């Protein structure tokens, strides 16, 4: 899949789940995490995914992030059926088109902010110069100029999450997947993070899918998808308009 | 290009990981360090000892051969074979034209007395040819003549150590020393030669005519050993065959009987002498190899701990798009770096200890490049072998599980 292919896909859904199910376990001890999910996400959207724990939203995020594959049904990312890709092909897909932000930040300990942000660029084979330049730009974009050489241990939670966001956007991904990005932060820090995400969505056109528990945070999104018992219970534009599925 | 890039990157990561856990890395490497160091020390010192043996034997003259009764000289000497007689020596000298000199040797340990000084030394009965065979000269006085040998006069040539012990700094020439009940005139003083192969003082000798020794000291007509030196340009193998053929005839051996004597050239003598060293080196080398194995297991253990500790990191790397083989490479390189660092430290340690020990044991220090290279490559190989399993474990982690790991 090249950049041209992606551009051609612009009018079409970026993410297309069609009757996706996910079953864990075998025999009698099976557990259906997803029971036939249909979902389309278009380029430039900011989608909040909500639901109680066990509702299937995390499983859905794993599938969207190409970390997992559906048991049945199809997941098309930019028209490519992810379920048919090998583990390595999915890794390459993540490397080139996806950015991840986790609840627990998942930064490398005892590694400077700059090096953390450089990490995805290393796997993309960028030169040291390019890595430094782009990592600095990304840190600047999240407002951490001057903190490049601090390790996660020396940064506050909010700052750590901003480093993580810088790491996610440094590759200029098409989709940013955020799994409860504010789950470990106080409300003031949470607002800062949400403002950042909103600005990346608005200014850079990065599509964002964010899992959250808090409706305050979901309020930043344009569209909210509710999961319940492995199915999408509601899918509406922020502000109450029901989205036509 | 991408692979070299990943390799350098993995190398940098590995070095950083090493630096972060200096103490742990060092303890992990200890097994490899000890293993590599002991292998190299043993081989280096063993090589030095062997070299010393070989050098000292060749200093005797590279064309020296020994003929001894029995199948083999040295430990486990086959006793019971008839000793040689002077007639054998004369026959060899007469019939084998490829020899430069032939000399009989019969020795015994005897206390020499001069005035009120006494010293126990090795007294050897031989002929004037012996000086040619062993390539030694007198620095004072003279050696005994052919006629003195034939008539069996009581004269002797002494080594520097004997002179020291009996005469102090005095000139011994013309003095008479007492050996058992024989009063013997000192007619010559040998040039010094120093210690021999087995730490024997080669200047602690007294040489006298064979006939005198046989009659007055040994009380028999036996010749313990025949030493010969081969003419230049003649192969020792050829001379050996000729001597063997002659001795078989002289000792009346039928075709189906084995030799009841042995002809040894320097190569065999040095092989025999260094054989013991080699066995010892081999045994200790095996012990060292076991310690390398233990070192390898230590590395595997710590790599498994490291993989577990860094599960979340691995999860993060996989999530942001690291390929399985990139994670594998990262951990494999880490264990290789760990092991070869251990090897490197072991090599440096071994070389410094070898230099010190060689000095203390008075063995020459012989730098053995192949064993150093083998030691290094072996430790790197241990890194690969014992690092592969943990690295594969890391590479095969499920990113979702790994990210959730606490």
Overall CATH class of the domain at 45-63 and 86-237 in chain A:
Alpha Beta
Low-confidence stretches of chain B: 73-78
Helix proportion of chain A: 25-40%
Number of domains of chain B: 2
- Main sheet attributes: strand count, strand direction, barrel closure of chain B: 6 strands, mixed, barrel
Total DSSP E strands of chain A: 10
**Binned strand content of chain A:** 15-25%
Under CATH, the topology of the domain at 45-63 and 86-237 in chain A is which?
A: Rossmann fold
Radius of gyration of chain A: 18 Å
The total strand number of chain B stands at 10
Average residue-wise pLDDT of chain B: 86
Termini separation of chain B comes to 36 Å
Strand order of the largest sheet of chain A: 6-7-8-3-9-10
List strands and helices in order, with pairings.
The complex is a heterodimer of chains A (245) and B (406).
Chain A: H1 3-8, E1 15-24, E2 31-41, E3 46-50, H2 57-64, E4 72-77, E5 80-81, H3 87-97, E6 98-101, H4 113-123, H5 128-141, H6 157-169, E7 175-179, H7 187-203, E8 207-211, H8 215-218, E9 223-228, E10 231-237
Helix pairs in contact in A: 4-5, 4-6, 5-6, 6-7
Chain B: H1 2-20, H2 22-58, E1 64-69, H3 86-95, E2 99-114, E3 117-126, H4 130-133, E4 138-141, H5 146-151, E5 155-158, H6 160-167, E6 176-179, E7 182-190, E8 205-209, H7 210-218, E9 225-230, H8 236-250, E10 261-265, H9 266-309, H10 311-319, H11 324-361, H12 369-395, H13 399-404
Parallel strand pairs in B: 3-8, 5-7
Antiparallel strand pairs in B: 1-9, 1-10, 2-3, 2-6, 2-9, 4-7, 5-8, 6-7
Sum this structure up briefly.
The complex is a heterodimer of chains A (245) and B (406). Chain A is of the alpha/beta class. Helices cover 34% and strands 25% of the residues of chain A.
